[in-house]
Specification:
Double Stranded RNA Binding Domain, 2 domains, three-stranded antiparallel sheet
Length: about 220
């Protein structure tokens, strides 16, 4: 479990970082602005050092994966920031301390606060370990950020094979909860895989992933 190891010499910065605008001023939006820039620099630097052969596109996609809201919120939960947030009555009632957007913003604000409290080097030492598990879990540089349909298309093109054909087999369920059944058919090598999902796109992605698995191309 992640841990907030930094001890603030200015506790007011920590308090501000964990204060949502719904609770009044001073709140964390300015610190969030600063932290957003810092986390992009820290992650960019780490990826640049760890992936010496990756091109700009792969580095950009990997950074986007690591700094998006849905990646920051779990780190905030690991740090138990939700329990420490100061929220206005409305946000407290609606469960704001569990919302991804509020948690991600608070994490960025916290990073900004650490930088102002102790400088860039300390900020790097404190913050990068929070991202290490997600960084280690990234796929290889040439795959990161690419969905299954894109990876399947690139694999086939690389071998000068015809592109896949996706077909809707059936759809079922109520309008608000439809399930789509899609097939993905390859000519060479001959292969048909299936996918199901709550949208045609999601089902196509599942079918493409199944094709990649069958081809040993994941």
């Amino acid at each position: 479990m992640s841990e907030l190891t930094h001890r603030f010499s200015r506790p007011d910065l920590l308090a501000q970082a964990l204060t949502h605008r719904s609770a009044g001023a001073p709140h964390n939006e300015r610190l969030e602005f600063l932290g957003d820039a810092l986390v992009n620099v820290l992650i960019a630097e780490a990826l640049y050092q760890n992936w010496p052969q990756a091109d700009e596109g792969a580095l950009t996609r990997a950074r986007a994966e690591l700094v998006r809201e849905s990646a920051l919120a779990p780190i905030a939960r690991e740090l138990d920031l939700g329990a420490r947030l100061t929220l206005g009555p409305g946000e407290m009632k609606s469960g704001g301390h569990r919302r991804d957007s509020i948690l991600a913003d608070a994490l960025e604000a916290l990073i900004g606060a650490i930088y102002l409290d102790a400088g860039f080097e300390t900020c790097r030492k404190v913050v990068l370990p929070w991202f290490e598990p997600a960084m280690a879990a990234l796929p290889p540089p040439h795959k990161v950020g690419k969905d299954a349909k894109t990876r399947l298309q690139e694999w086939l093109q690389g071998k000068q094979k015809p592109l896949p054909v996706y077909a809707l087999v059936s759809e079922s369920g109520e309008d608000h909860a439809k399930i789509f059944h899609i097939t993905c058919t390859l000519q060479h090598p001959p292969l048909t895989t299936d996918g199901e999902g709550g949208s045609r796109r999601a089902a196509e992605q599942m079918a493409a992933e199944a094709a990649l698995q069958a081809l040993g191309a994941t």
